[in-house]
Automatic annotation (TrEMBL):
Coiled coil: none annotated. This is SGNH hydrolase-type esterase domain-containing protein. It holds the Pfam family Lipase_GDSL. It comes from bioreactor metagenome. One of its GO terms (molecular function) is hydrolase activity, acting on ester bonds.
């Protein structure tokens, strides 16, 4: 099973969809408690957001400015995702760091679509390769 926190849980257009860090941790802990014993899990961090391209930036400038932008607002959830994987011994696919490490050589839009958030075909290939590597390195067969 692949587990990735969704960026739509930071939807400022629908405040009822916002998921606090406390609530996020509760969801992760419940997920772990209710997971069938034989289930194998790999955890994926949410990818970088290019604030200057994302449609929320101009619409929610005040909320986002306080947090340093949507990308920075997501960082606490990325860190919680990393903690959850480490604590539970789950393979971590740190898509966020993988993409950021490639920006200098590949460019910021190589792995991200011009909307600033969704993966490009190259981003999807990077993720698919990382998932396969994580599965194989942990003795799992796809």
């Amino acid at each position: 099973m692949l587990l990735e926190f969704g960026g739509n849980n930071h939807d400022y257009r629908s405040p009822e969809r916002l998921v606090s860090l406390v609530e996020f941790k509760q969801h992760l802990e419940r997920f772990r408690r209710e997971l069938p014993a034989a289930t194998r899990v790999a955890v994926i961090t949410f990818p970088p957001i290019l604030d200057e391209l994302h449609c929320y930036t101009p619409l929610h400038m005040i909320e986002l400015e306080v947090q340093g932008g949507l990308d920075r607002a997501m960082e606490s959830h990325r860190e919680m995702t990393r903690w959850f994987a480490r604590t539970n011994g789950f393979p971590l696919i740190d898509l966020d760091r993988m993409i950021r490490e490639r920006w200098e050589t590949e460019g910021r839009l190589h792995y991200t679509l011009p909307d600033g958030v969704h993966l490009s075909p190259a981003g999807n290939q990077l993720l698919a390769g990382a998932v396969l590597d994580a599965l194989l390195s942990h003795g799992l067969r796809p």
